[in-house]
Amino acid sequence: MTVRLRSHHLLCLLTYVGKGYSDAFIENYDKIAERLCDGEDIIIVAGPDDICAPLLDDTDAHCWRDSVVLRDKAAATALTAELGTPVEVGATISLEPSALRKMRDGFAKGTVRQACTECEWYDLCTNVAASNYENAKVDR
Q1: What tens digit of pLDDT does each residue of 76-113 get?
Q2: Which residues, 6+ apart, have CB-to-CB distance to 61 below 8 Å?
Q3: What are phi and psi of 100, to 5 degrees?
Q4: For the chain, how big is the Rg over CA atoms in Å?
Q5: Packing angle, helices 97-109 and 122-130, rounded to 10
Q6: DSSP-assigned states of every residue in 56-107
Q7: Nearest alpha carbon to residue 27 among 54, 63, 7, 56
Q8: With 11 labelled, which of 23, 114, 130, 138 sits at a CA distance of 20 to 30 A?
Q9: Dist CA 87 CA 67 (whole Å)
Q10: 48-76: per-residue pLDDT in tens?
């Protein structure tokens, strides 16, 4: 199996420490983190993905908003440059330790965080990166 992720969620998974929008969201994200730690690949999708699933019953879920689509584009551009491989819809990404390290290094330096501006989780993610990703659930 593969984990379906929109491109900006590649950034979110770097600092995921078990906090989220609801208990159902956190439970789902914990399972996804476990799958990624077990070595499942990621396929990049357009629009709502496996992480968004618990939010989609809400007709006003932010997952559908244009601002999130712009976030995906910014993340894809930055991560393509950082990883040296296209991050685009349909691409399969293996979250090898070297790729995770490159993304985390870029995140900590701010070179891949263009998609994070105006995100409500910005400060939390900044603090997780500053702690050298202590307690981050996705770690390989």
Answers
A1: 999 999 999 999 999 999 999 999 999 999 999 999 99
A2: 48, 52, 55
A3: -60, -45
A4: 14
A5: 110
A6: TTSTT-GGGSHHHHHHHHHHHHHHHHHHTS---TT-EE---HHHHHHHHHHH
A7: 54
A8: 23
A9: 19
A10: 999 999 888 877 788 888 899 999 999 99
- Angle (deg, nearest 10), helices 66-83 and 97-109: 110
Give φ, ψ of 43 to 5 degrees: -115, 130
Residue with tokens 């490159």: 102
Count of residues making up the chain: 140
- β-partners of residue 3 are 42
Which of 14, 19, 42 has the alpha carbon at shortest distance from 29?
19
pTM for the full predicted model: 0.94
Please tell me the predicted confidence (pLDDT) of residue 57. Answer: 83
